[in-house]
Amino acid sequence: MRGRNAREPEVAIVDLTSMLYVVFILLIFFIVTSIFIQEETLGMEGPPPPSPQQNQDPVPAIVVRVTEDNLIRVNGRLTDISGVRANMERLRAENPSSALIIQAHPRAPSGTIIRVRDQAYNANMERVNVIRDAD
Amino acid sequence: MARRSRGSAAETNAEDDVNLTPMLDVVFILLIFFIVTAVFIKMPGPEINRQQVDNLEATKPLAILIAVDENSDIWIANENVDIEEVGFKIKEMREENSLGELVLQIDESAEAGKMIDLLEIVAQEDGTQISRISTNPRS
User: Fold this and answer.
1) Is pTM, for the whole model, over 0.80?
2) Residues 57 to 96 of B: which have CB under 8 A from any A CB?
3) How far does CA B130 lie from the centroid of its chain?
4) How many CB atoms sit inside 10 A of residue B26's CB?
5) Nearest to B58 by CA among B138, B122, B135
6) Interface contact B38, partner A, CB < 8 A
7) Among A19, A38, A112, whose Cβ lies nearest the Cβ of B60?
């Protein structure tokens, strides 16, 4: 109101408050979107790239097979998801350098594979790969 | 100058004249910074039932989200994509955002074969051996 009383034409009196509101809202929007968009994820290794030499490497491996009907076998022994970790740890104790291979049937549910991989993290397994079982 | 003289003339309500210009400058600079660094992520679309796991970590910034729904269909940016086109789509989206993380949203009842195909494609396109699978914390 006082700005209008001033007789001489003045540029500096432009009211910036409402513009400041808009700018603040935009600022808060961009801060929020830049910080809060994230996903909780689990790391998963796919099949190893084909190596030049075709002969099998001699490292012993623990094989977890997940069949089409969602049955889990650790080196041939039938188990369920809660027994996977104990089986892995037992086999690793026998052969500490073992790699872990999760062999999944193409029509097995992905959730089971992810849980087996999660159990492998719990058991601190190294060199884990998920490969495709033959049909 | 005219302002200052008026301010001293009416001393009773001097707060009316707080100069907002420097603050506006600062806020503008922050705003431009956040706009420039903001990345708009294209959501895949379908609702995914994520597997609950113990070992998860927060992954950000995100760049590419690929979803596999319960019927094992692959979705990128609200589009149903063929498995053969996924590699091309990843290349295309990497041109816009080369730094962020690529996350796979896999439904827990999707076929494992599709997931392994995607793991292979992502390893080939992104050169990373470990892919990130979106999961939920175990309650």
Assistant:
1) no
2) 57-62, 65, 68
3) 19
4) 10
5) B135
6) yes
7) A38
How far from chain centre, in Å, is Cα B120? 23
Q: Tell me how long chain A is.
A: 135
The residue length of chain B stands at 139
Query: Number of residue pairs across A and B with CB atoms under 8 Å?
Result: 173
pLDDT in tens, chain A (135 residues): 455 555 556 565 677 788 888 888 888 888 777 666 788 899 988 888 776 665 555 677 889 999 999 899 998 889 988 889 999 899 999 988 888 999 999 999 999 999 999 999 999 888 889 998 876
B88-113 in b/e burial notation, b at 16+ Cβ within 10 A? ebbeebbeebeebbbbbbbbbbbbbb
Q: Do B57 and A44 touch (CB under 8 A)?
A: no
